[in-house]
Fold this sequence. Notes:
Blueprint: H1 12-19, E1 41-44, E2 47-49, H2 52-62, E3 69-73, H3 79-88, E4 93-98, H4 101-113, E5 119-123, E6 136-141, H5 150-154, E7 156-167, E8 172-180, E9 183-192
Parallel strand pairs: 3-4, 3-6, 4-5, 6-7
Antiparallel strand pairs: 1-2, 7-8, 8-9
Helix pairs in contact: 1-3
Amino acid sequence: xxxxxxxxxxxxxxxxxxxxxxxxLFVPEEFAESAYLDIPLPIGHGQTISAxxxxxxxxxxxxxxxxQKVLEIGTGSGYNAAVLSVLVGPLGxxxxxxxxxxxxxKAAERFKLLGIENVYVFLRDGKxxxxxxxxxxxxxxxxxxxxxxxxxxxxxxxxxxxxxxxxNEYAQTLKKIVKxxxxxxxxxxxxxxxxxxx
Length: 198
């Protein structure tokens, strides 16, 4: 379904992982017929499920390996976390944080229903990360921040990657942060459009 993502530089491995997760199961019933279109869709509470090409690009930039520990800020419908769970494999772990109780509960129920056992949902403020399970090999935010929350950098492991949209409601840039010893290397990946971190 997502072969067109090669155009965006998304690898066969990421495309295969996305093909293993049925996006239709993560969108509201009224948008089911649009589930396979490459567009973001509303999931309620002012939140959206990202367009598949953006999920692909972000998974590609995270350079995920099997067995890694990932923190996701913004669970939403749970689709992105489900794809992450495939990429890190059964030995990997995905911790995902959501601030909207209804979304967190629905996502947790979906994971249970689909037999996804390596994703753990927490109802928290994403700006604070999830310190009790830190450090993380990878951290990804599916919502934009006006500036990078310091706790997320603190909770990143040596050699780890943080991917986060930074900007305002009009213009955002997907930032890739690589932690090398005590240094932070920052790269701008592409222009994006996400809902705000709340």
